């Protein structure tokens, strides 16, 4: 193959993937480099900052052996949201590990701000949560000697992991924070479209250590990699670019990405205040912002991993058995799914996941899968209170490969589910944006699931919802 390509750099919690897409959206080549995640006895979740940088460099070098750097026309980054980095402004040296979005180390301190939760929600469109960056930043300012020393010397810089990667990898060492990642710090306001002085004061964070807040489309700078140079015009969050994997943004669709966690994005036009949902940025330039209501289900693929540990049985094998199973099983137990913390619309970080009722291993697997569909449904119902109901669902991610789950979602939402075949939704969505959203950019093949009339599934959902509300204290 020949001709120019767009480079999509997807930096996630488990790996960095660098992919080359041609002008029509075909993948010319890809390289993936895994990164380690450190967990300690205190529950801290971290990445080595230098390892993350090296994973990008290595992935790009490997990609260049497949697709020469001379063909690289433009590049963009999509990075795990809510993860935080700390570095020395003089040389870019990290002064602390990357604190993962999964890390909740300052939860106890954050509870002291509970009286301010409504105010924070009004300013950010987010709940007061230790998963977001502000409390992690505060913890490091209080407890990490290297961070404290850099702050005392006036050389500390901190911000989203995406900002650190731009600073380390781009010529000129820019200090920029894209809106999609800045919006996950609890320090940036979608209503101001900038860092909030009120929030900075609340968390005790000096504005001087933060990067300049910009859009997701910006002249970020030039990436020097694999012996070549390529302009970077897009930087965003991993979930924020997923809707664009299916092509132009459909304002009447709800986008459901079903991976380790599940994310439900409903384009909202403006930045709404819609607690208990999240307000997310999915695209922004100097003139225009696209916002979405977002629902978060922490226990999707993660819940099936929990089931494997609980049962000792292979979830993949049971999912295969369920793929063509009937839509409902009245004898199956219910699964109260708070794996990795109960997300929206319940927001109970400490929640005991458990079955209600008895069942075989296969029925328990069905119950877990069903709980993912029910949590998505609960978020869709909440979204319907703020925006018009969607005309379709667009499903992506590894777990969307299960036909039973897609059928459940179609029946529960009462709209078609369009499942597309590309398993790398983040990379494809990013590449589409990097390419400038061309009309002839190929979208992956879709398979449509129509609703199947089955009142038993809705009855099970209503019973499950009653059990969840009681268990969550709602």
Topology, pairings included?
Blueprint: E1 5-11, E2 15-21, E3 27-34, E4 38-39, E5 45-47, H1 49-66, E6 72-79, E7 84-88, E8 98-99, H2 107-111, H3 117-124, H4 133-143, H5 145-152, E9 156-160, H6 161-169, E10 170-171, E11 176-178, H7 179-182, E12 188-189, E13 194-195, H8 197-203, E14 212-214, E15 217-225, E16 228-237, H9 238-241, E17 253-258, E18 262-269, E19 278-284, E20 289-297, H10 301-311, H11 315-322, E21 334-336, E22 354-356, H12 361-383, E23 392-396, H13 403-413, E24 417-420, H14 425-434, E25 446-449, H15 455-472
Helix pairs in contact: 4-5, 10-12, 11-12, 12-13
Structural descriptors:
474 residues, alpha+beta, Nucleotidyltransferase, domain 5, seven-stranded mixed sheet, globular
Describe this entry's structure for a reader.
- This protein has 474 residues and is an alpha+beta fold.
- It has helices at residues 49-66, 107-111, 117-124, 133-143, 145-152, 161-169, 179-182, 197-203, 238-241, 301-311, 315-322, 361-383, 403-413, 425-434, 455-472; strands at residues 5-11, 15-21, 27-34, 38-39, 45-47, 72-79, 84-88, 98-99, 156-160, 170-171, 176-178, 188-189, 194-195, 212-214, 217-225, 228-237, 253-258, 262-269, 278-284, 289-297, 334-336, 354-356, 392-396, 417-420, 446-449.
- It folds into two domains: 5-237, ATPase, nucleotide binding domain (Nucleotidyltransferase, domain 5); 247-474, ATPase, nucleotide binding domain (Nucleotidyltransferase, domain 5), CATH 3.30.420.40.
- A seven-stranded mixed beta sheet has the order 3-2-1-6-16-15-10, sandwiched between helices.
- Strand 23, helix 13 (403-413) and strand 24 form a beta-alpha-beta unit.
- The longest helix is centred in the C-terminal third of the chain and has 23 residues, at 361-383.
């Amino acid at each position: 193959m020949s001709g120019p390509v767009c480079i999509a750099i997807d930096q996630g919690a488990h790996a960095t993937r660098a992919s080359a897409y041609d002008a029509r959206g075909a993948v010319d080549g890809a390289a993936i480099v895994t990164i380690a995640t450190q967990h300690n006895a205190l529950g801290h979740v971290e990445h080595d900052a230098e390892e993350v940088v090296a994973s990008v460099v290595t992935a790009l070098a490997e990609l260049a052996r497949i697709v020469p750097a001379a063909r690289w026309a433009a590049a963009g980054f999509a990075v795990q949201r809510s993860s935080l980095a700390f570095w020395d402004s003089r040389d870019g040296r990290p002064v602390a590990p990357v604190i993962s979005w999964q890390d909740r180390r300052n939860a106890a301190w954050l509870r002291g701000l509970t009286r301010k939760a409504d105010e924070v929600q009004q300013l950010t469109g987010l709940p007061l949560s230790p998963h977001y960056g502000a409390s992690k930043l505060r913890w490091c300012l209080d407890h990490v000697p290297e961070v404290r020393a850099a702050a005392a010397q006036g050389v500390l810089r901190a911000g989203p992991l995406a900002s650190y990667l731009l600073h380390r990898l781009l010529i000129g060492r820019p200090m920029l924070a894209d809106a999609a990642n800045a919006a996950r710090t609890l320090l940036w306001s979608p209503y101001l479209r900038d860092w909030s002085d009120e929030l900075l004061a609340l968390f005790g964070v000096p504005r001087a250590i933060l990067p300049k807040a910009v859009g997701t489309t910006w002249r970020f700078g030039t990436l020097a990699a694999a012996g070549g140079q390529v302009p970077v015009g897009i930087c965003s969050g991993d979930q924020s670019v997923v809707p664009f994997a299916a092509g132009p943004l459909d304002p009447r669709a709800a986008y459901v990405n079903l991976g380790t966690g599940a994310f439900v994005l409903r384009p909202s036009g403006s930045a709404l205040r819609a607690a208990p949902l999240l307000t997310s940025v999915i695209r922004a330039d100097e003139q225009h912002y696209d916002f979405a209501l977002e629902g978060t289900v922490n226990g999707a693929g993660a819940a099936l991993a929990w089931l494997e540990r609980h049962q000792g049985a292979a979830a993949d094998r049971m999912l295969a058995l369920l793929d063509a199973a009937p839509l409902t099983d009245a004898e199956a137990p219910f699964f109260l799914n708070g794996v990795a913390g109960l997300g929206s619309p319940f927001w109970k970080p400490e929640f005991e996941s458990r079955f209600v009722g008895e069942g075989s291993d296969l029925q328990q697997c069905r119950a877990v899968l069903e709980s993912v569909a029910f949590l998505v449904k609960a978020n869709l119902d909440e979204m319907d209170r703020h925006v018009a109901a969607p005309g379709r669902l667009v499903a992506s991610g590894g777990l969307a490969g299960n036909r039973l789950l897609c059928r459940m979602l179609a029946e529960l939402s009462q709209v078609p589910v369009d499942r597309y075949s590309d398993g790398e939704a983040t990379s494809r969505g990013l590449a589409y944006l990097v390419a400038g959203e061309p009309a002839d950019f190929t979208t992956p093949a879709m398979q449509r699931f129509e609703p199947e009339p089955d009142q038993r599934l809705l009855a099970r959902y209503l019973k499950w919802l009653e059990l969840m509300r009681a268990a969550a204290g709602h």
